[in-house]
Specification:
The chain is α+β, with helices and mostly antiparallel strands. It folds into 4 domains: 87 residues, Uridine Diphospho-n-acetylenolpyruvylglucosamine Reductase, domain 2 (2-Layer Sandwich), CATH 3.30.43.10; 117 residues, Uridine Diphospho-n-acetylenolpyruvylglucosamine Reductase, domain 3; 107 residues, Alpha-Beta Plaits; 90 residues, 2-Layer Sandwich (Alpha-Beta Plaits), CATH 3.30.70.2740. The strands form 4 sheets. Strands 12, 13, 14, 15, 16, 17, 18 and 19 form an 8-stranded antiparallel sheet that branches. Strands 5-6-10-8-9 form a 5-stranded antiparallel sheet. A 4-stranded mixed sheet has the order 1-2-4-3. A hairpin with a 4-residue loop joins strand 5 and strand 6. It is globular and about 70 Å long. Keywords: FAD, Flavoprotein, Oxidoreductase, Transit peptide.
Length: 454
C-alpha cells in the first residue's frame, strides 16, 4: 500500500491532492528562497485527522511540513525534503471567545484579520500585528510580533495554551487558561517559535485585550536617521506608554508615496500610536511633542480620526509591497535583526552603509521601540551576483547584532535563511536544542532542515 492509499483511509479524497498546481502553490513562501514541490498536500479538518496523518508519516518515514498562508520570509515552509504538506485552510474556526477571561481559542488556520472581526463584537482585539494577514498557527510557529509589540509584547507573550500533535501522532497540551503557573517546564515557550520542527499546532488559546477608549496616531519627520532614533529612545526612557513606534527611512518614504499616493516628506520618519483614555492621551502626546522637538523634529502631525489613522498605518504596512511594485520581476530579501535599544542607532547606520556598499536598492524600516529593524533589499533571484550581494549585507548586519548582544532574527524566524547563524548566536545551547528535537522527533520528520543548522 502506498502512502497515498494510507492517507485516503483517513481523509476524504477531495482533501488530498497531488495536482501539479496545488503542489506548486505549496512549494514556496514570500521569500527569495528556491521553491520545492512536495509529494502531496492534505487538508485536515480536525485534530484527530492531523494525528492520523502524523501516524501515517511516521510509519512511512515521510517528512511533514505545516503550511498556513505561506507568508513566511525565511523559507520556513518550503518542503525541501518533499513529503507531505499539511495545509490548515479548513481548520479555520474561532472555537471560543471568553471575554471575562480575555482569552480566545482558535484553530491554526484562523487569520489575523478574521480574528479581529470576531473579537470586535466583544470590544476586544488581538495585539500581534505582523502586517501580513497571516494565520495564527503560522504566527505562533515563528513567534511573530510587529508594530504593537513595544506595548503588548510578542506572540509568545499571548499564548496561554497550545494543542500540539507530535511526530508520532500523540496529542498534548502545553499550558492552561490560567494567567500564570509554576507547574512543570515552560512548554509554551519551547513550542512557540519552533517553526513546525517539534509538532503540529491544532488549537491555540490566546490572550486578547480590550479595545482602547481612544487611539491617536502621529507622524514625525526628521532630517537624519540619528535624530529619529534618538527621539525614539528618549520617548522610551521617559516611560511614555506608547503602543507603536515605527521608523521608516527616506528611501522607504519615497516608495510609500509612489505606492500609496501620499505626499509625506521623503525623510527619515517615525510613525507613532498611543492607546488610552482622553485625559491620559493628552498628557502623553504633549510630553511626546516636547521630546520630538528637542530632537529637531521637522514635521509633526497627529491623527485621532479612525480613517486617517488607518491610512497612516496602511501606508506603513505596505512598505514592502511598495518596493516590489516599483521593481517588477524582482524578489525581496527582508533582513530581520534585533539589538538592545542602546545599540540601535549604530546598527541602523551600519545597515545603511552595507546597503550602499552592495549597490543594491534597499530601504530600512523597523519596530524601533524594541530594537528590531529590517532592510528591504531588492534582488534578481536568478542572478547569483545579486544574491551574494544581499547575503553579504545580511551577514554584515547579523554579525554586528550578535557582537552587541542581539539576535539574527527578531520576528521572521530561522527557516533556512538564518540557520547558518544559529551556532554563532547560541553556542553550546544549540546542542541542547538538537537533543530536544531528537527526543520529540527521532526520525527527523517534522520540517527537516529548518532552524537547527548542522
Amino acid at each position: 500500500m502506498t502512502i497515498l492509499d494510507a492517507l485516503k483511509k483517513i481523509l476524504p479524497s477531495e482533501h488530498i491532492s497531488d495536482n501539479d498546481t496545488v503542489l506548486e502553490q505549496h512549494s514556496s513562501d514570500e521569500s527569495y528562497h528556491t521553491p520545492k514541490l512536495p509529494d502531496v498536500v492534505v487538508f485536515p479538518q480536525t485534530t484527530e485527522e492531523v494525528s492520523q496523518i502524523m501516524k501515517v508519516a511516521c510509519e512511512y518515514k515521510t517528512p511533514v511540513v505545516s503550511y498556513g498562508l505561506g507568508t513566511s520570509l525565511e523559507g520556513s515552509v518550503i518542503p525541501y525534503e518533499k513529503g507531505i504538506v499539511i495545509d490548515y485552510t479548513l481548520m479555520n474556526k474561532v472555537l471560543e471567545v471568553r471575554p471575562d477571561d480575555f482569552l480566545v481559542k482558535v484553530q491554526p488556520g484562523v487569520t489575523r484579520k478574521q480574528l479581529e472581526r470576531e473579537l470586535k463584537k466583544y470590544g476586544l482585539f488581538f495585539s500581534v500585528d505582523p502586517g501580513a494577514d497571516a494565520t495564527l498557527g503560522g504566527m505562533a510557529a515563528t513567534n511573530a510580533s510587529g508594530t504593537t509589540s513595544v506595548k503588548y509584547g510578542i506572540m509568545r507573550d499571548q499564548v496561554r495554551d497550545l494543542e500540539v500533535v507530535l511526530a508520532d501522532g500523540t496529542i498534548i497540551h502545553t499550558g492552561s487558561m490560567a494567567a500564570k503557573s509554576s507547574s512543570g517546564y515552560h512548554l509554551n515557550g519551547l513550542f512557540v517559535g519552533s517553526e513546525g520542527t517539534l509538532g503540529c499546532f491544532t488549537e491555540l488559546t490566546l490572550k486578547v485585550h480590550g479595545i482602547p477608549e481612544q487611539i491617536m496616531a502621529g507622524r514625525a519627520a526628521f532630517q537624519t536617521l540619528d535624530e529619529a532614533v534618538a527621539a525614539v529612545i528618549s520617548i522610551l526612557q521617559a516611560g511614555i506608554p506608547i503602543a507603536r513606534v515605527e521608523l521608516v527611512d527616506d528611501q522607504s518614504m519615497k516608495q510609500i508615496n509612489l505606492f500609496s499616493d501620499t505626499t509625506y516628506r521623503e525623510v527619515p520618519t517615525v510613525f507613532l500610536e498611543f492607546h488610552g483614555n482622553e485625559a491620559g492621551l493628552k498628557q502623553d502626546v504633549a510630553f511626546t511633542k516636547d521630546l520630538l522637538e528637542d530632537h529637531r523634529c521637522q514635521v509633526l502631525a497627529f491623527e485621532s480620526n479612525t480613517a486617517a489613522r488607518n491610512r497612516l498605518w496602511e501606508a506603513r504596512h505596505n512598505t514592502a509591497y511598495a518596493f516590489l511594485h516599483s521593481y517588477p520581476g524582482k524578489k525581496q530579501m527582508v533582513t530581520d535583526v534585533c539589538v538592545p535599544i542602546s545599540e540601535l542607532a549604530g546598527a541602523i547606520k551600519d545597515g545603511r552603509k552595507a546597503v550602499e556598499a552592495s549597490g543594491l536598492t534597499g530601504g530600512i524600516v523597523g519596530h524601533v521601540g524594541d530594537g528590531n529593524y529590517h532592510i528591504l533589499l531588492m534582488v534578481d533571484a536568478d542572478d547569483p551576483t545579486d544574491i551574494e550581494k544581499a547575503n553579504q549585507v545580511n551577514r554584515q548586519i547579523v554579525e554586528y547584532a550578535l557582537k552587541r548582544g542581539g539576535t539574527c532574527t527578531g520576528e521572521h524566524g530561522v527557516g533556512i535563511g538564518k540557520a547558518k547563524y544559529q551556532e554563532a548566536e547560541h553556542g553550546n545551547a544549540l546542542e541542547i536544542m538538537r537533543k530536544v528535537k531528537s527526543v520529540l522527533d527521532p526520525n527527523n520528520l517534522l520540517n527537516p532542515g529548518k532552524v537547527l543548522y548542522d
